[in-house]
C-alpha cells in the first residue's frame, strides 16, 4: 500500500493526530503529511503512505488555497480564535469599502513576519512552546506570494474571504495584518484549506469515511498511485532495460532518456515503467550529460 490519500481534516485535531489515525486505520508502518494545518482548521491534508513518504518534498511546495472568516475589532495573541484576547475595538468604524480596499492592497504583499505561536523553531525549540513560557521570538520576515485574495462576503464584524498563496504563508497573520491596516485589529475564526498543490477538497475523504472504506476493503479505490500523485511533473516511460539500469543505481545518460518536455517551475522528472509504476525521480539538470537521482523506488 504505497500512495497518497487526501484527507478532509476535521477540526480540533492536530495534523500529527490525523496522521496517527490514518496509520491505525490503514494498518501501515509509515504515514506522513505534506503541510501542517492548525488544529482548529479543516480541509485538505495530503497524506503519504509507506514508500510515498519519500515524495513529500515534491508535493509540499505547491500553491495553497483557503477559505476563511476573520473577525474585525478583536486581536488575540495567537492571531486566531484559540488565543487570548489582547485588545478590542468596541466602536468599529470600518466600512465594507474600507475592507475591500485593504484586501486589494494586500495582494501586493511579498513578505510576512511569522507569528510567535508557530511551529517554526528557535535553537531547536518550536516558537509556540517558547511563547507559552512567555518567551516571544520574532523571526525575520520571509518571502511569500499572494496569488489571489478575494472578499466573498461581509457581515461586519465578520469577513469571509478566499486566498491563494505560496506554501509557508500564515493566513492568520494575513488576517491580523489586514486588521492592523484597518486600524481595528482582527483575528482568524475559521479556516478551511480547499487546495494543496494539485489536490483539492473534492477528492478528500473524511476519517469516518476512511474507516468505513477500510472495513469494506475499499481503501485501494481511494489511494492515488505514486506516479499519478506527481501531477504536472515531466515524465518519461522507461523500457525494461532502462528500468533495470535505474534499479541498479547506474547513471542514466541524456541519450537514454530522450527528449523530455521540461518545465521551469518543476526541476524534476519522473520515470515510470511500462505499467505506469513509479521507478524513480531524477533532477532535470544534468552534469556531463548524466542525470542525477533524487530517489529510486525498488521492489
Number of helices: 9
Number of individual domains: 3
Number of E-state strands: 19
Cα gyration radius (Å): 22 Å
The secondary structure category is: alpha+beta
So, the CATH homologous superfamily of the largest domain?
Pseudouridine synthase
Fold and architecture overview:
With 299 residues, this protein is an alpha+beta fold. It has three domains: 3-61 and 198-227, 2-Layer Sandwich (Pseudouridine synthase); 64-196, Pseudouridine synthase (2-Layer Sandwich), CATH 3.30.2350; 232-296, PUA domain (Archaeosine Trna-guanine Transglycosylase, Chain: A, domain 4, Roll). The chain contains nine helices and 19 strands. The protein has helices spanning 15-26, 56-59, 96-106, 127-132, 171-182, 207-215, 226-229, 240-247, 254-257; strands at residues 3-9, 31-33, 42-49, 64-72, 74-76, 85-88, 111-112, 121-122, 125-126, 142-143, 146-155, 158-165, 186-196, 199-200, 235-237, 252-253, 268-272, 278-287, 290-296. The strands form five sheets. Strands 1, 2, 3, 4, 11, 12, 13 and 14 form an eight-stranded mixed β-sheet that branches. Strands 15-17-18-19-16 form a five-stranded mixed β-sheet. A two-stranded antiparallel sheet has the order 5-6. A hairpin with a 2-residue loop joins strand 8 and strand 9. Helix 1 (15-26) runs parallel beside helix 6 and helix 3 packs across helix 5. The longest helix has 12 residues, at 15-26. It is elongated and about 75 Å long. The model has no long low-confidence stretch (mean pLDDT 90).
